[in-house]
């Protein structure tokens, strides 16, 4: 697969041959779903917590005598049956993460890149370098028509570009090692530098 390469000012910078084993696969929704679910579950805090019968602040004194009242027998006010009593089998802090084979994770990233390429949402740029001025970069991004875009650079992100992109709404920047399925799929446009393409192909082949 061959794609045109552009500069940030929109001018042409030649073309680049992309490996079909990374950018030319047929998308599979089942694999993408498994990888995204694995990512989101691992990111979930799992800090939800309710108070049990032992942790509520009422007295533990028996509320009335066992027999002779005509009512049901009860112990203290901490019982789950009472308002503001303890919660029975409520959520407790735990990890929501689960295992996913490395081969599936790797395939998921390939499929995400291929899906963006197939839909025409993949843009290759010569490099992601700027002088650090947000206004100048924002104007270039607007002229290129990028509204919700993810920029993937090589091994590291240019400091000036990262600083300039920090306050531009809808524009995010990642090094190639941080490329992941969820961040790629939730954007309208995927922008990869030539260095980023080389790093991704080396990582995924």
Distance between the termini: 16 Å
Q: How many strand segments? A: 6
Low-confidence stretches: none
Order of helices and strands: EEHHHEHEHEHEH
Q: What is the CATH-assigned architecture of the largest domain?
A: 3-Layer(aba) Sandwich
The domain count comes to: 2
In round numbers, the mean pLDDT is 93
Q: What is the helix tally? A: 7
Strand order of the largest sheet: 2-1-3-6-4-5
Shape: elongated
- What value does the Rg take, in angstroms? 27 Å
Q: What is the CATH homologous superfamily assignment of the largest domain?
A: Ribosomal protein L4/L1
CATH class of the largest domain, anyone?
Alpha Beta
| Helix coverage percent | 25-40%
**What is the CATH fold-level name of the largest domain?**
Ribosomal Protein L4, Chain: A
Question: What structural class is derived from the secondary structure elements?
Answer: alpha/beta
Strand content: 5-15%
Query: Biggest sheet, open or closed, and with what strands and sense?
Result: 6 strands, mixed
């Amino acid at each position: 697969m061959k794609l045109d390469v552009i500069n940030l000012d929109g001018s042409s910078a030649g073309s680049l041959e992309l490996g079909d084993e990374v950018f030319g696969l047929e998308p599979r929704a089942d694999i993408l779903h498994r990888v995204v679910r694995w990512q989101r579950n691992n990111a979930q805090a799992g800090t939800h917590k309710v108070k049990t019968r032992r942790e509520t602040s009422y007295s533990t004194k028996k509320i009335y005598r066992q027999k002779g009242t005509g009512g049901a027998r009860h112990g203290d006010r901490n019982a789950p049956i009472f308002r503001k009593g303890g919660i029975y089998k409520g959520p407790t802090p735990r990890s929501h993460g689960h295992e996913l084979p490395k081969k599936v994770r790797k395939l998921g990233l390939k499929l995400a890149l291929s899906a963006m390429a197939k839909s025409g949402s993949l843009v290759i740029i010569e490099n992601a370098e700027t002088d650090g001025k947000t206004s100048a970069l924002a104007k270039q991004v607007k002229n290129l028509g990028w509204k919700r875009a993810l920029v993937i650079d090589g091994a590291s992100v240019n400091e000036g570009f990262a600083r300039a992109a920090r306050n531009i709404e809808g524009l995010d920047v990642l090094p190639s090692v941080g490329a992941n399925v969820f961040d790629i799929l939730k954007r309208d446009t995927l922008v990869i530098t030539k260095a980023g393409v080389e790093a991704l192909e080396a990582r995924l082949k």
